[in-house]
Amino acid sequence: MIERKEMLPVNRFQVVIGNYVLGFSKASNLENSVEYDTYVEGGLNDSPWIWLKPSQQVHTLTLEKGAQMRPLFGEKLMLLPGTEIQGGIVLMVNDFSNELARIFSCEQAVVVKWELSHLDALSGEMLIEKIEIAHSGLKEVR
Questions:
Q1: In 58-86, which positions are buried (b, 16+ CB within 10 angstroms) versus exposed (e)?
Q2: pTM summary value
Q3: pLDDT computed for residue 5 by the predictor
Q4: From residue 83, how far is each of 18, 94, 141 by CA, in Å?
Q5: What is the reported pLDDT for 74?
Q6: In 3D, which of 140, 131, 62 has the Cα closest to residue 105?
Q7: pLDDT of residue 73
Q8: Which of 24, 103, 121, 141 is the most buried (most CB within 10 A)?
Q9: Mean pLDDT of 111-137
Q10: Which ranges of 68-133 would DSSP assign to H, the alpha helix?
């Protein structure tokens, strides 16, 4: 069981995709769940039996960031639909003193959706890139 002593800020995190450490402004759909069946048997039993079964659904992770014109260093990582992410995904959350507090990871991941915010010549908004990634389930490593 992981001991949680203090609250963590939601704005101090990094995402590692394959071999790239990337900064995103928002990460959502951070969840994991299991599927199960129940069985009620006769007699004096007060509750049903619960059996875990293999998952039939895919989990998704949504990442949002401001789109850049070109990368600052090295080649740009192309996260287009259909791209299988070699090495999986690691999400690292830091505490208030910027020390590593929690780590989540998933091994199998594929980009399934890529989206840009709307373009409006009368607006001063930033261009936001949204990436949806299907994965095998987030596991807490630390």
A1: ebebbbebeeeeeeeeeeeeebeeebebe
A2: 0.74
A3: 61
A4: 11, 28, 25
A5: 56
A6: 140
A7: 54
A8: 24
A9: 87
A10: none
Q: Determine the Cα–Cα distance for residues 92 and 142; give it in Å rounded to an integer.
A: 9
> How far is 138 from 36, CA to CA, in rounded Å?
18
Mean pLDDT of 29-50: 83
Do 137 and 111 form a contact (C-beta atoms < 8 A)? no
Tokens representing 133? Answer: 């990634």
Contacts 24+ apart (CB under 8 A), 18-24: 18/77, 18/85, 18/86, 18/87, 18/88, 19/87, 20/77, 22/65, 22/77, 23/65, 24/63, 24/64, 24/65
Tally DSSP H helices, then E strands, for the chain: 0, 11
The separation between the first and the last C-alpha atoms of the chain, rounded to the nearest angstrom, is 10
* Residue 3: φ, ψ to 5°: -85, 130
pLDDT attached to residue 126: 79
**Dihedral-angle region of residue 137 (phi above 0 means left; psi in -120 to 50 means alpha; beta otherwise):** left
| SS3 call for 121 | coil
Q: Residue 72 has what pLDDT?
A: 47
pLDDT tens-digit series, residues 5-28: 667 676 788 888 887 888 788 899
**Neighbour count for residue 113 (Cβ, 10 Å):** 13
